[in-house]
Amino acid sequence: MMDKRLLKDRIAGKVMWLLTILSSLMVFLIAIGLYERSRPILAVKSLRELLFSTSWHPLRKEFGFFPFIMGSLWVTGVAVIIAVPLCLLTAIYLSEYAPRYVREWTKPLIDLLAGIPSVIYGIWGVLVVVPLIKNHIAPFFGAFSTGYSVLAGGIVLAIMVFPIIIHVSLEVFRSVPFELREASLSLGATKWQTIKHVVIRKAMPGIIAAIVLGLSRAFGETMAVLMVAGNTAKSPSSLLDPAYPLPALIANNYGEMLSVPLYDSALLLACLVLLLVVLVFNVIARAVLIKVERGIQ
Amino acid sequence: MLSHELFSSKWKEGYSKMDKRKIEERLFKGMMAVSTLVVLSSLLLILATVLAKGLPAMNLAMITQTPKGGFYLGKEGGILNAIIGSVYLATGATLLAILISLPVVLYLNVYARKGSRITTFTRFSFDVLWGVPSIVYGAFGFTIMLFFGLRASLLGGIIAVSLLVLPIMSRTMDEVIRMVPKELLEASYALGATKLETAFKVVVRQALPGILTAVLIAFGRGIGDAASVIFTAGFSDFIPNSLFRPAATLPLAIFFQLGTPFPKVQDRAYASAFVLTVIILVISITARMLTRRFTRHTIK
Amino acid sequence: MDFKTHISVRHLNVFYGSDQALKNITIDIPDKKIIAIIGPSGCGKTTLLRSFNRLIDSVDGIRVSGEVLVDGENIFNPTVEVTHIRKKMGLLAQSPYPLPMSIYDNVAYGPRIHGQRDKKELDRIVEHHLKEASLWSEVKDRLHTPASRISVGQQQRLCLARGLAVEPEIILADEPTSALDPKSSQRIEESFLRLKKEYTTIIVTHILRQARRLADYVVFLYCGELIEHGPAESLFENPKEEMTREYIKGIIS
Question: Checking phi first, is residue C164 left (phi over 0); if not, alpha (psi -120 to 50) or beta?
């Protein structure tokens, strides 16, 4: 009887260990899988040409990703510029000034925002943001726009990344020891001076990590931008121009993918590039956050 | 004494600088309040829009019927295919993810030594995976499908979505199981139980509400995601009856209906969005209430 | 003992929610002496200390009644500017918490936020106060390196210099040597003895020997109540209260 239980324990242990190892290696598995599928196109075209060429004509076997990379950068850039000040101010308010009940009620609401699916954001963007740009913002600047633009994508993405930037920033502020604030206050500093010179300074690496995580999330978002950014295969040159971010490209063309030679390989390469960019951001940001949590300067 | 007096005259100068600082503080406090309001009202705005556009277009047929002929041109039918498809898919994906998450998390917390390299590496890995875009999971699921010769199907979707929700479920479960006090485990060992028995009979029981919360959160994520199923689940007008046939999902149903030029169909898209939002809200609120109940019990 | 009063506490009661941390404290703190507040842990010593510079304001659910008069002014008067009060006091906490900046900037922080901009003045202030805290010779060559790089004992002296740089009248020290090794502790104690001439120093300590070494005046708190207070010699040799006697003997702790 004893042996049976111990045997079960041992086998279970080994199985669980195996699953754990596999899970932790999943990142690599995904990257390798995508790489394998991208090899056909990498055999035919150089990476430089793929990343920097602006001509995208799959039927003619021209696969220049540059317009899409630019599209991604523009939309992500706008999103970050909008989101960062709003999120930081909100996080500082919730962490340093708000009474406890306000904090208790707003945190779940913000997390609720994180749970809303991207299609819903997309619909909202189509219903509210796109007409706003088309009918009000563009004419205000004397320009014409269909509304499906970098700006639309940026606004929708900004709201989508609010939760992660705020959530992580709040954690970072919480990790600043209250004794440090006390030290500053005892010297006669006001609350705001303490926040400005001590708290934010101490939290800076963590805040940057929070922003990088938000940036990475915006970069990889697919559905919502697909619905509002315009999807024209040309690098945008203004906020009101349409853009075609990389994830949108991949999602839009899954249908034709297998019928045109090399198309599937190209798109999966685009996917791999997306993955690698996001991985670099995430790994660095997470590593910084671990250091911050441990209280190392 | 003298130095005090000297400083106090400088102090009087300082008072006017103080006013400047007060103004700065007040300005920033104002901006902070505005920012918080903007963030919160964006949530409300989105929900309100979905409600305002979706509710009027809503009718019983939407949730009880599948698309009849010409549905996408404006004819009769509903999105029952997508509702059921999404539920099947999310359930399948969640179950598959539990099969991997639970053993892994139990391994990290019960079997492995605390702070060992495998635990930090796995936790870090899950954190990084959390940030991987859903389309990458879709594309990877697609490559797996091609490898096994699967076509766009319910199973394909299940595989892709289970990979997507695995990190979320694992991390949330991990946070919860970590909170189980070490003394409880030690008490179990002291009675002669093996690690396996302790893991499943003690730890899981103690952390059950938290585990359920993790499952719910993962389910919510899985049911709402479109990018991972675009490649892998295909689409169908019928309620899925086989794992190997394409299945409709709510997010894609919304997307396709919105993409048609017919206002009547677009209205249905809003109604579908309303249905999806209601499902997500119910899941989120339930998950939150579960966490509240859970934390109430574990304040030692 | 005949002395000039610097701080006057009148019927001070402090409540954390429904817990009463300080019960009807009335005491006069003498000017330019070292006052030790002694008593078992959790008895309100820290609360009393922190009510002097109103740091307890930031605690959730705190309620205060009574008065604390510093130079005749009640610091709990709502019209009083709190930063003004805090400038008069320097706090030295249990563990050193250097601000996330260089050694120089740590000391210059206080004067800077109160408006001092002149570089030469700041240089003079930094040097003077680092010398007061007997840290100058050890750090003068690396004033602009991050404060986190120096040892814990040096950090505590840095915090002392930082607190002195705003030219307070009163030094509040909350178990200032409990995180330090004996040598650093000794240096801090020596600083206090030197600074006695210019500053009123109030030290919370649970080390009776430290109180004996440093204090001119002793205050004994037990469970939020003021049991006994008086000149150090007479309190330690001839305590009037039974409880004081038992605490000093080490029966209760």
Answer: alpha
